[in-house]
Amino acid sequence: MDVLTIEDALVLAAQVAPYVDILELGTPLVKNAGLSAVTAIKKAHPDKIVFADLKTMDAGELEADIAFKAGADLVTVLGCADDSTIAGAVKAAKTHNKGIVVDLIGVADKVSRAKEVRALGAKFVEFHAGLDEQAQPGYDLSVLLTAGEQAKVPFSVAGGVSLDTVAKVQLAGADVAVAGGAIYGAEDPAAAARELRAAII
Q: Do 76 and 101 touch, CB atoms closer than 8 A?
C-alpha cells in the first residue's frame, strides 16, 4: 500500500482484505505516517499478515524489534545490508516469532545473495524491481522470475505483478506475488484484488 496516510491505508485495506493474505505497508507510508500505521492496520485486520516494508539498511535488530512491537508480522531488510544487520533483524524476528524478508532491490547478483540471506535466516527473499527501475525502457519482469527460479529459495516477486503477469509469477515458483500498483492504482481496488486472486491457480 503505497498511500501516504493511515486513513487512506485503512480504506484501501478494508477494500482488499477479503482477497489478500498479506497487507504490506509500503515504505512511503511508513516514512510518512510512522509505525502507528502498522499498529492501525494490524488492529483493523488482526487475521492478516501485516508486512512493514522498512527497507532497513542498518541497526537491523533494533528496527525490526520496533516494527514487531508495533504489530508487524514481517519486516524487510535490504539485501545489500551487511550480514550482521540481517542477522540482527532475524534475531529480533525469532524473539517475536515473526519473520524477516530480505529485499534484493539494487542487488546485482540476486541469485547468490538470495542463497546467502536465506542461510542467515530470512523467511523468504524478495526479488524486487522498484518503481524507478520499472519505469526504465525495456524493463522485463522475467529477469526477476528467472533469478527466483535459479535461487531455489522461498521467494516473493515485486515489480510489475498484475493480472497479465501473476500466472507467470506462480509458474516461476514464487511463494508470494506482491501486487501494488495493480491494486491501489486501479479504479476499483477491490475488484482488482478479487481478479488477481481468481487468476491464481
A: yes
pLDDT band at 201 (very low <50, low <70, confident <90, very high): confident
Quote the CA–CA distance of 2 and 106 in Å, as a whole number. 19
Strand ranges (DSSP E) for the chain? 22-25, 49-56, 74-78, 99-103, 124-128, 155-158, 176-178
23-67: pLDDT as tens digits: 999 999 999 999 999 999 999 999 999 999 999 999 999 999 999
End-to-end CA distance of the chain: 24
Q: Is 97 exposed, middle or buried (0-12, 13-18, 19+ CB in 10 A)?
A: exposed
Distance, CA of 165 to chain centre: 17
DSSP conformational letter for 146: H
pTM (2 d.p.): 0.96
Alpha-carbon distance of 104 to 78, in angstroms, equals: 6
Residue type for 92, please? A
DSSP letters spanning 102-143: EE-TT-S-HHHHHHHHHHTT-SEEEEE--HHHHTSTT--THH
Output the DSSP codes for 168-199: HHHHTT-SEEE-SHHHHTSSSHHHHHHHHHHH
Rounded CA-CA distance 53/8 in Å is 17
